[in-house]
Amino acid sequence: MSDDETLADVRIVLIGDEGCGKTSLVMSLLEDEWVDAVPRRLDRVLIPADVTPENVTTSIVDLSIKEEDENWIVSEIRQANVICVVYSVTDESTVDGIQTKWLPLIRQSFGEYHETPVILVGNKSDGTANNTDKILPIMEANTEVETCVECSARTMKNVSEIFYYAQKAVIYPTRPLYDADTKQLTDRARKALIRVFKICDRDNDGYLSDTELNDFQKLCFGIPLTSTALEDVKRAVSDGCPDGVANDSLMLAGFLYLHLLFIERGRHETTWAVLRKFGYETSLKLSEDYLYPRITIPVGCSTELSPEGVQFVSALFEKYDEDKDGCLSPSELQNLFSVCPVPVITKDNILALETNQRGWLTYNGYMAYWNMTTLINLTQTFEQLAYLGFPVGRSGPGRAGNTLDSIRVTRERKKDLENHGTDRKVFQCLVVGAKDAGKTVFMQSLAGRGMADVAQIGRRHSPFVINRVRVKEESKYLLLREVDVLSPQDALGSGETSADVVAFLYDISNPDSFAFCATVYQKYFYRTKTPCVMIATKVEREEVDQRWEVPPEEFCRQFELPKPIKFSTGNIGQSSSPIFEQLAMMAVYPHLRRVFYLNDSNLLSKITFGAAIVALAGFLVLKNL
Ligand SMILES: Nc1nc2c(ncn2[C@@H]2O[C@H](COP(=O)(O)OP(=O)(O)OP(=O)(O)O)[C@@H](O)[C@H]2O)c(=O)[nH]1
Ligand SMILES: Nc1nc2c(ncn2[C@@H]2O[C@H](COP(=O)(O)OP(=O)(O)OP(=O)(O)O)[C@@H](O)[C@H]2O)c(=O)[nH]1
Ligand SMILES: [Ca+2]
Ligand SMILES: [Ca+2]
């Protein structure tokens, strides 16, 4: 393929029996008049986009069976987006050639069930002869045949139309949308259109009201529908599809039926215009660009939802919380994510989130979910927001909408430290502790689950728990992440050591518990800027001496760590426990590390930290548990 060739959006290949007029057809198109003597075959022709009705660069390949060997023909066919099989209406044997030679050769090139459209072109239709009777059954019997046209290179009849149809067959292909055997929409087209319907049904009542239909129309075609047009659409639907319209609104069945009508009437471009607006490419998959916008995240920066992102996901919650109880029941939750390819919040990972007594996701838990994935798995946030329709309606001129606007990249952590402040909202806290130290109980408390809940969860496990925590008057998200270090010898990955704060848990009733924390601390966090804190668990039990060089309090003093905090029984199951506030606080104000250590409110009042100090005073009081 030459460089020019690769530029072509549409590649049309002409094949057919000898002498049926392939070269003449291309000549007539190029010269805009009949040319008597044509060469055996023409070189590749490249037609620039601006002279084609659909504005696509088109290449036309004229093949002559005499000159080309079959391998060459097959290789040209394979590169084609659409194939015109030319026959002569004055020569029946060329009609037979379609079924005996050309269609089989195309299948042999692409495979039995290929999707490359074929157009049957009956040339030399300048006399009285036609072959419609023989052609229609061929079209019926071979679903890859998109359409058939009779034309004449001599009189110019339908010459430009053929090439226009060929282009349209590529840009607005039928086969992904329509199953000619069953005369129904294909499964993937149904699925795509169901997604479109759900996104457009903005109040989630199952109907497209006139307003919703009009917005949809404006979105896809740029102009509103007149009220007569609206009525016409609804009448056409209810005539052919009894359950298509109810309450004077379009139902899902009606919406699908409407698209079936478009397709059956040859107006595929209408359905394609809709699908493309919602991110689909020709394969009816969402395009890579739509799903995964390009973004670079500099080292030390993190990703969070932008105000638009927050607004979008929060509106989704409103839309799907049908009974307005502030929680998503399993069916509401399933409904919300039904346009996504895989269920995202499962029985297991819902344990990372706050739920109500019945185990239903709260608004808080739902928002926390988005904050979590945006921090730890941005690709997944992009993908889900794309499926959920975030980009829809956000496309600028010449640019398909994408999900980039849903995200903001935070300032580098180093700069935050230098400036003693951050506008980040989501912070990550590692939870480190020996086996049985009480990590799960501690973490689940942030989601509001207590001992009994944890006992029920059993071995099911989420390595994350996230919730909203108040720091000063602001709310921040604290993401707890359990590190799976079975022994202090295990290596921590860079993802793990890059946390904003580390909580080391040790069981006061187990003499070997603290050694684990001390070892991991010294190995990974000593001399780093990451704030760390020791947390004593199972404090209602009798305290035993820890088998370590020094007791925990002494250890903390040596390393200038804050005194160990007691995670008392009263804190279990409490998402608003002051311990979580303290962790969030340490994550938000890491430069106050030494202040946390000094733990002296008199001294504190003498140092000026700007706004941070106000909150800190409050926190230090809370700290003496
Ligand atoms: N009456 C009539 N004759 C045509 C028409 N188109 C082509 N012909 C004649 O048919 C003959 C074959 O035309 P070509 O364009 O060379 O056919 P081709 O399909 O390119 O032939 P090969 O390259 O040999 O396979 C020539 O004598 C043309 O003048 C047409 O529309 N009407
Ligand atoms: N009495 C008391 N028991 C606790 C406390 N915290 C945890 N436990 C119990 O200690 C045991 C271990 O707690 P988990 O939270 O599962 O500990 P873990 O660190 O997650 O354990 P692994 O994941 O197996 O390493 C469980 O039986 C808990 O019920 C506490 O504060 N007081
Ligand atoms: Ca030729
Ligand atoms: Ca509605």
Which ions, cofactors or small ligands are bound in this entry?
Answer: guanosine-5'-triphosphate, calcium ion
pLDDT averaged over residues: 88
Which CATH class of the largest domain? Answer: Alpha Beta
Major β-sheet annotation: 6 strands, mixed
Estimate percent helicity.
40-55%
The best one-word shape is elongated
Strand order of the largest sheet: 2-3-1-4-5-6
Q: CATH topology of the largest domain, anyone?
A: Rossmann fold
Low-confidence stretches: 598-625
N- and C-termini, Cα separation = 75 Å
Radius of gyration: 34 Å
CATH superfamily of the largest domain: P-loop containing nucleotide triphosphate hydrolases
Individual helix count: 26
Integer tally of domains: 4
Secondary structure: number of strands: 21
Q: Report strand %.
A: 15-25%
Subcellular location: Mitochondrion outer membrane
GO molecular function, one term: GTPase activity
Family: Belongs to the mitochondrial Rho GTPase family.
Function: Mitochondrial GTPase involved in mitochondrial trafficking. Probably involved in control of anterograde transport of mitochondria and their subcellular distribution. Plays a role in maintaining mitochondrial morphology.
Structure, briefly:
By secondary structure, this protein is an alpha/beta fold.
